[in-house]
Amino acid sequence: MSKAGSKLNFSSPYHPQTDGQTEIVNRSLGNLLRCLVGEKPTQWDLILPQAEFAYNSSINRTIGKSPFEALYGRPIAHFLDRAPIPYPGRVSADADYYLKQIQEVQQQVHQRLRNSTVKYKESADKHRRGMTFNEGDNVLIYFRKERFSAGGYSKLKRKKYGPFKILKKLGENAYLIDLSPEVSTSPIFNVSELYEYHGEAPSTVDIDGLTSRSDIETPSDGVEDILDVRESVTRRGTHRRYLVRWHGRPLSDSSWISEAELRQLREDLYQRYQDAISTESRFPQLEGN
């Protein structure tokens, strides 16, 4: 991978805009699968080979080549290309020469990506606020939905918490924040999630709703009741998700969790629910005449 010029770059957690190219690919694949599955959305895994071939052989507007050609240095072989006909355009089998061909193609792809990135950046910068913070500054933090623990997010819950102190600047747009150990999220935040705090920092910071539910020790602190169950049938079997009400929280904070999560939090409640279902199926209620 080092000979091909590949390197690993880290991105800020819970900030998909940092890795925009990957998010665009995910969006394109989602749209492609949505078109192919038609009226059978639960069988999306059956058409993955067709979707993969269609995506890898399609010309990308940004790079001007298909993803397959950008990776291997030549167009993908279709049915007619596999016929026993001499193909003068095929590269040499020599590894070094083949690598050189791939590098030339990837250089062209990189150049087109850089040109496209510059164009998109100029458009995005028109609506972006430029902020720079120093180590030791106090900031308010905007917590995205993904950062809240299970059952801790609500549309009416406040999104900004703080103030918190900046410990270190990581790169050009990421910061390491001094979070309380009870906060169940990564302490690295993108600059777009930070806001200036004016005034003196209080002695304590209200972190209600940010604490982790992985430290639950007693059932009374977790799931209070099961409100509903939803089943989905796929090729690999039947999967269940449970709508649960959290102890000490309003009904509006109820959320869906998987069967494995329910058993981890409230095994006793899960078993009681299964026993009740089996009892109802064994002794169905008879309608009166």
TrEMBL record:
It holds the Pfam family Chromo. InterPro entries: Chromo-like_dom_sf (IPR016197), Chromo/chromo_shadow_dom (IPR000953), Chromo_domain (IPR023780), Integrase_cat-core (IPR001584), Retrovirus_Pol_polyprotein (IPR050951), RNaseH-like_sf (IPR012337), RNaseH_sf (IPR036397), SH3_Tf2-1 (IPR056924). PROSITE patterns: CHROMO_2 (PS50013), INTEGRASE (PS50994). Residues 8-21 have a biased composition (Polar residues). Residues 1-21 are annotated as: Disordered. One of its GO terms (molecular function) is nucleic acid binding. The lineage of its organism: Eukaryota, Viridiplantae, Streptophyta, Embryophyta, Tracheophyta. One of its GO terms (biological process) is DNA integration. It comes from Ananas comosus var. bracteatus. Residues 1-75 form the Integrase catalytic domain. Residues 221-285 form the Chromo domain. This is Integrase catalytic domain-containing protein.
